[in-house]
Specification:
This protein is mainly alpha-helical. It has 13 helices and 5 strands. The chain has a 3-stranded parallel β-sheet with strand order 1-2-3. The structure holds adenosine-5'-diphosphate (ADP) and tryptophan. Adenosine-5'-diphosphate (ADP) binds next to α1. The site of tryptophan (TRP) has 12 residues, from β1, α7 and β4.
């Protein structure tokens, strides 16, 4: 992540939303989740929320949505999002998000939304059933951000445009009605470029079915690791670690010494990809062990998890309701 030097940033506020969209994988973890925990621990004020309203643009099954929200809350709490340090909440618990979306809709030019990638892609794929919700997605996201007046918004590259739209909408509102909103900076996750999938060819993604899920049962993870596609160099022959997906995944978890030791085994020959996969599996399970245990514990105590979310919502509401009052006043809804 191209985070500005964190020591000079204490006192600043970061905010990010995560859309519940299924079981998290190593790409999500190294590309987003881990960074959120590091930012939380850097001394900045941190707001992280579950963007369940955004999921409604693609998801129509209430049972699945509920489950995905629970899973995401468990995942984030298990990897170290700490409610004492982060305001962790669920977007739909704060009605100000939807209320302010209407107000910002009324200053947002349609042609700005027509340029948004997600909508453009849907239209170019011929999606005749693209909904008003999908079209308006960037305005809801702008509200998510602006209502909390953060300094930085950590997001993946794919979301940079949405943060820029939020800045444009904030600027427009401020020009029309007077200053309310801060223009936040996107903070782009660049940790590893992107994490390669088990096919060794494309970015790890739920939609490509090439993922390793750190919270799946051990048998599933083993199957995913053993299924990593490698080249067909025979066991005896020397191998180039830099060209191998198993090695690149191992590097995510290993220290410098361990990486050097594994690279030497590759180059010496007599060490097969199957052996490397076993090492990767061991390393991965060891790395996630405390998180997996924590997740199991939390799962046994859902009342506690719900309590965390409702306390998070209460804190988020303090800020959201203040911003709402300012906006209501500026636009003339307060008599
Ligand atoms: P998916 O492609 O599996 O649907 P999402 O779009 O839900 O993943 O990803 C949520 C966030 O996780 C993204 O904004 C991005 O920051 C991060 N992410 C997802 N996949 C990867 C990957 N392969 N490498 C790095 N980061 C990723
Ligand atoms: N659209 C983001 C994504 O798919 C999720 C999101 C919703 C978000 N609201 C946000 C991210 C506000 C940052 C800030 O990843």
């Amino acid at each position: 992540m191209n985070s500005p030097s964190t020591t000079s940033q204490s006192g600043k506020r970061i905010l990010s939303g995560v859309q519940p969209s299924g079981i998290q994988h190593l790409g999500n973890y190294f590309g987003a989740m881990k960074g959120h925990v590091e930012l939380q621990n850097s001394g900045m004020e941190s707001f992280i929320f579950i963007a369940d309203l955004h999921s409604l643009t693609t998801l129509r099954d209430p049972k699945i949505l509920k489950q995905m929200v629970i899973d995401l809350a468990l995942d984030y709490l298990a990897i170290g999002i700490d409610p004492a340090k982060t305001v962790f909440f669920r977007q739909s618990d704060i009605s100000e998000h939807t209320e302010l979306t209407w107000i910002l809709n009324c200053v947002t030019p349609v042609n700005m939304l027509e340029q948004a990638h997600a909508y453009k892609d849907a239209v170019s794929r011929g999606a005749k059933d693209a909904t008003a919700g999908l079209f308006d997605y960037p305005v809801l996201m702008a509200v998510d951000i602006l209502i909390y007046k953060p300094d930085f918004v950590p997001v993946g590259k794919d979301q940079k445009q949405h943060v820029e739209i939020a800045r444009d909408i904030a600027g427009k509102f401020n020009r029309v009605y007077g200053n309310v909103f801060r223009l936040p900076e996107p903070m782009i996750h660049e940790t590893h470029g992107y994490i390669l999938g088990t096919d060794g060819a494309s970015k790890m993604s739920k939609s490509y079915g090439n993922v390793i899920n750190m919270f799946a049962d051990e048998k599933t993870i083993k199957k995913q690791v053993m299924g990593i596609i490698t080249d067909s160099t025979p066991v005896d022959a020397p191998k180039d670690p830099e060209k191998d997906t198993v090695y690149s995944m191992y590097s995510l978890f290993a220290g410098e010494d361990e990486k050097t030791a594994l690279a030497a085994k590759y180059r010496a020959g007599g060490f097969g990809y199957g052996d490397a996969k076993k090492l990767l599996l061991e390393k991965l399970m060891e790395y996630f062990k405390p998180y997996r245990e924590e997740r199991e514990k939390l799962k046994q105590n859902m009342d506690h998890v719900k309590d965390i979310l409702s306390k998070g919502a209460a804190k988020a509401r303090e800020t959201a309701s203040k911003t709402k009052a300012e906006v209501w006043d500026k636009v003339g809804l307060k008599i």
